Amino acid sequence: MSKRRRLGLIGIAAAVFIGVYSIGATVKLSEEDATQLKNEFMEQVKDIDAIGIFLNNFRIAAVMFIPAFGVVVGVVSAFSTGMVFNALAQTTPQLAGVPPLAILATPFGVMEMFSYGIAMSQSGILINAIIRKHNLKLMLKPTLIELGIVAGVLFAGAYIEFAMIEMFKPETEMSGTYS
User: Fold this and answer.
1) Cβ pair 69, 115 in contact under 8 A
2) pTM
3) 84 to 18, 54, 57, 128: CA distances (angstroms)
4) Quick check: 64 and 118 in contact, CB under 8 A?
């Protein structure tokens, strides 16, 4: 497969992720559901650091490599992430006017979209190879290389995301004193 075609497939997969994320971000949530979803998310990320962010994102991306199933996981992940953003925007006054795509336009957001695009597109390529009865042993090396690329990009992205989170924490939260 040519590099140009491969990049096109990555772009298509990333666009699908972004589109489904956008749909998830528009789902109407009751105030109660939005609060519950926000609280569940906040509990999940309460003590997360850069390694925790990386492990969470890489676990999701690694599953996205599974033939056919990975595309489904990517779509569900995108929709869920959009819903979480929606819940946060609904329950956090500072996020009320922030467009959902703004999060994806951050450096770490772009890195995650690129990584998920690689993973989801490789899932599609693998299922195509299975359907066409191609030798899957030939697919192993490129898949492992792409998995390594995704790991590296998500690792760097996790540190950028964590640094941005730390930068925007309120002073009282950083010092450990709450008023």
Assistant:
1) no
2) 0.88
3) 14, 18, 15, 32
4) no
Strands (E), the chain: none
C-alpha 90/C-alpha 160 separation (Å) is: 25
Q: Are 41 and 89 in contact (CB under 8 A)?
A: no
Each residue of 90-122: pLDDT tens digit? 998 888 889 999 989 999 999 999 999 999 999
Distance of CA 125 to the CA centre of its chain: 20
CA distance 162 to 33: 27
CB atoms within 10 A of CB 72: 14
CB 150 within 8 A of CB 58: yes
d(CA 160, CA 13): 23
Residue corresponding to tokens 């006054």: 93
Q: Which tokens go with 145?
A: 């290389």
**Based on the number of CB atoms within 10 Å of its own CB, is 71 exposed (0-12), middle (13-18) or buried (19 or more)?**
buried
